[in-house]
């Protein structure tokens, strides 16, 4: 193997190592919680507490995103319904005014 090939392999390995380090962060949790997670991991198919935590967080984020999307869709539907509810014909408006006048409000 030439020096160039060895150097290139070393650079590639360092770049991969750097990109792996940059793609993850450390999250601090209370030690008692970590111990409980370790127990769950030992009784399940997860390889490590990190794998379990990532799985749970992804699941929760998916639920939160779905919930937010549903809320936004409901808000759009409510806005559309509200817009439609304000579209009265002139006869309907006259009828409402007459009823309000008969009740003493106008």
Kindly describe this structure.
The protein contains 4 helices and no strands. By secondary structure, the protein is mainly α. The longest helix is centred in the middle third of the chain and has 37 residues. The model has no long low-confidence stretch (mean pLDDT 80).
Q: Could you name the ranges where pLDDT drops below 50 across 5 or more consecutive residues?
A: none
- Global outline: elongated
Q: What can be said about the biggest beta sheet?
A: none
Structural class: mainly alpha
Distance between the termini: 97 Å
**Integer-rounded radius of gyration:** 31 Å
Mean pLDDT: 80
Number of strands: 0
Order of helices and strands: HHHH
State the gist of this model.
The chain has 106 residues and is mostly helical. It has helices at 3-22, 31-42, 49-85, 90-102. The chain is built from four helices and no strands.
List the helices and strands and how they pair.
Layout: H1 3-22, H2 31-42, H3 49-85, H4 90-102
Descriptive terms for the model:
mainly alpha, 77% helix, elongated, single chain, 106 residues
């Amino acid at each position: 193997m030439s020096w160039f090939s060895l150097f290139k392999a070393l650079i590639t390995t360092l770049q991969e190592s750097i990109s792996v380090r940059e793609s993850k962060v450390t999250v601090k949790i209370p030690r008692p919680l970590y111990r409980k997670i370790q127990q769950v991991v030992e009784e399940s198919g997860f390889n490590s507490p990190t794998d379990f935590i990532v799985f749970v967080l992804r699941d929760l984020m998916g639920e939160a995103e779905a919930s937010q999307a549903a809320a936004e869709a409901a808000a759009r539907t409510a806005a559309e319904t509200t817009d439609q509810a304000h579209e009265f014909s002139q006869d309907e408006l006259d009828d409402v005014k007459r009823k309000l006048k008969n009740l003493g409000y106008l």
